Amino acid sequence: MKTILTWLIIGVAVGYFVYTRVLPLFSFQKKRKPFTPIHRDENSTLTNSQYKKIALGAIYSEMTHAYINTLATGLDRSYVNSTLLHSYWKLKTASEARAKLVYLRDKGFRYYLPAIFRALMAKTAEEQEDVIDQSFQEEDDKGKAYSQLHNLIDTMPELLQDGILHDEQDILKYGMIGWDCGRLVFLTRLCLEARIINESEAWAYIDAASELAHITYTDWESYAKSYILGRAMWGGIHSGNRDVAAIARYLLEKDESPWLQLPW
């Protein structure tokens, strides 16, 4: 009986591992959309200055097959509302969407990075917990910081191997502002598409993202690395970080990319 019980326990453990660790990798590969070239609206009336601001959200635009050179995304409104805003962003009401725009503009992931980096440099798990606990008063902030720290630890080998980072100090060098700005620009466009905000409000948020990005970075490559780092800290090892990095490389290298057409 003990032998049978032992094999049953081993079987359950193996099954759990396959279900939670192996199958998600295959399901992600099946669900992943093939990468396609840049989506551009030939009737766009944006100036180069406006286009460059919209291009801060270029990685997100390419991920969703949205237009890269207009304020409008060109996506179906029901898809914007039900899938992108409701399912992906978890924003059910206009007030929640507006609050998220303000959060990305004024706080974002960048708020947590100094404490996360100190925790990363700590020698023990207990010291890491102490850093996070002493850095934030709100439980929500502590939870976000812990999540980002653990995702960073999990994805560091991949980020180093792929040359996104060369050492731990690059975490502070690139930071999270690119991630915050890219998401702010694209969420703003979604909110405009959903008629939650008007065009004047949309440009105000996009202008804020552009100002923050350009006082922080000196080129598109640094901005892109920040976005990739932020994505890794947001989603961890099963969020398609290498696909995001591939889109960034495409934008940095291809002649049709606004990142090459419009100097930083």
Note down, in words, how this protein is organized.
There is one protein chain. The protein has helices at residues 2-31, 48-54, 58-64, 77-88, 94-106, 113-121, 125-135, 139-161, 169-174, 177-193, 199-216, 220-235, 241-253, 258-261. It folds into 2 domains: 1-31; 37-261, no CATH class. By secondary structure, the chain is an all-alpha fold. The chain is globular, with a radius of gyration of 20 Å.
| SS elements, strand count | 0
Percent of residues in helices comes to over 70%
Mean pLDDT: 89
Taking the alpha carbons of the first and last residues, their distance comes to 70 Å
Give the C-alpha Rg: 20 Å
Number of domains: 2
Outline of the structure:
This protein has helices at residues 2-31, 48-54, 58-64, 77-88, 94-106, 113-121, 125-135, 139-161, 169-174, 177-193, 199-216, 220-235, 241-253, 258-261. It has 264 residues and is mainly α. The protein has 2 domains: 1-31; 37-261, no CATH class.
SSE blueprint:
Blueprint lengths: L1 H30 L16 H7 L3 H7 L12 H12 L5 H13 L6 H9 L3 H11 L3 H23 L7 H6 L2 H17 L5 H18 L3 H16 L5 H13 L4 H4 L3
What descriptive keywords fit this protein?
264 residues, mainly alpha, 2 domains, disordered N terminus
